[in-house]
Write a structure and sequence with these properties.
Elements: E1 5-6, H1 8-13, H2 19-31, E2 35-36, E3 39-40, E4 55-59, E5 66-72, E6 86-89, E7 95-108, E8 133-143, E9 161-163, E10 172-174, E11 178-182, E12 186-190, H3 202-205, E13 206-208, E14 216-218, H4 220-228, H5 230-233, E15 237-243, E16 246-260, E17 263-276, E18 282-293, E19 298-304, E20 312-313, E21 319-328, E22 332-342, E23 348-359, E24 375-376
Parallel strand pairs: 1-4, 7-15
Antiparallel strand pairs: 2-3, 4-5, 5-12, 6-7, 6-12, 7-8, 8-11, 9-10, 10-24, 13-14, 15-16, 16-17, 17-21, 18-19, 18-20, 18-22, 22-23
Length: 377
Amino acid sequence: MAACVLRRGLLSSVGKYGRKRAFAALHADLCGRQEVNGHALPCSSCGVAGGAQARFLSSRPEGKILETVGVFEAPKQHGKYETGQLFLHSVFGYRGIVLFPWHARLYDRDVTPPTSESKSEPPGTRGSKEVKGKTHTYYQVLIDTRDCPHISQRSQTEAVTFLANHDDSRALYAIPGLDYVSHEDVLPYSSTDQVPIQHELFERFLTFNPSKVPPFVPRDTLRAWQEKNHPWLELSDVHRETTENIRVTVIPFYMGMREAQNSHVYWWRYCIRLENMGNEVVQLRERHWRIFSLSGTLETVRGRGVVGREPVLSKEQPAFQYSSHVSLQAPSGHMWGSYRFERPNGTFFDVRIPPFSLESKKDDTPDGFLPGPFSLA
C-alpha cells in the first residue's frame, strides 16, 4: 500500500486551508503522521518527515479514474521559485507552472508599521493611517486547462486582460489560464511527464531539458513576450486589509490609454481576493466603491454582489477571487470602499477595501504581444 498517496478528496481540500493548515491536513490524512512541538515525525510506512515526498493524485475530467501527477517537494521558505517550477495552488487547488517572478510592494494594513518610510492613504479615506510597503514575490503562471472547470471559487480563470488594438476603446481581450500567484500559495511538486501542464502556451514558452532543475526551461519566445509586454503584465503594488476576519487583497494593473471623443481615457484592471479567516459562514451582498480622479471628480458606485455573484465564504470554501476594470479621464487616481456581508443570523457588517492608487505608465500600444489566439472578455 502506498501510504503517501494523496486521494482526490484531499486534492480539493488544498483549497480549504491556508498554506500551513493545508500541509498539516495532508500530513495527518496521508500517513497518519504526528507532530511534536511543531515538528513532523517520520511516516511509519515511507520514513519521510514533513511530506516532502508525498505523492498526490488528480482525477481525469470525468472524475472516474485517478492518475498520479507528481511528487510534492518541500516549499521554499526563502528565495524564489525558478521558471518551470510545477505547483499546486494552495487556495484554489489547480495545477500550474511558473513562468517568471515579479517583485511587488505589499502594503499590509494588518501590520502596524513604524512612522518612517511609509506610504500615505489618499485624502478623504476613513481611518487614514500610513502603511509601510514590504517587498513580496509573486509569480506569472500558466493554469492547467484541465483544472479550470473545477475552480469554483473564482469568477474566471484569467487575471490578465489587454485593451484591444483598434478603435473600440472599451474592447478587452483576455488570456485564458494566465494568473498571478503569491509565493506562499505555491505548493511545489515535480513530475517525470515532459508535458505535465495542458495549456496552448506551454510548449511555446517552455521546453523540456532533463539536465536542469526544474527540467522545464524558458524558450526565447517567453523572454521576448515578457520583455514586450512588461508594462501590461507588471505587478507593482499589492494592498491588504482584514475586517472582522474577512481579508481583502487588491492588486491593480495599468492597462493603457485610448482616445475617445477627443479625450484620453486611461484603463486599469484590478484583481481582488476575499478570504474568510474565521469559522463563521458569511455571504457578500453589496459593494460600495469610491473612485477619485486626478481631474477632481469623485464617483460613488453601489451594487449587489460582485461580477454578478454573491459568493459565500465558509470554512470549506474560504476564498473568492475576481477581476474587474475601471477607466478615468486622468492619468492617475485612487479607489477605496467596502463590501457588505451577511451573517447566518441575518445581521450585516461592512468590510473595508484598502485604498489603492491608479497610476499610469508610458503608453505603448501592445501590438503582437501574444503568440496565439485570444478570447474576447
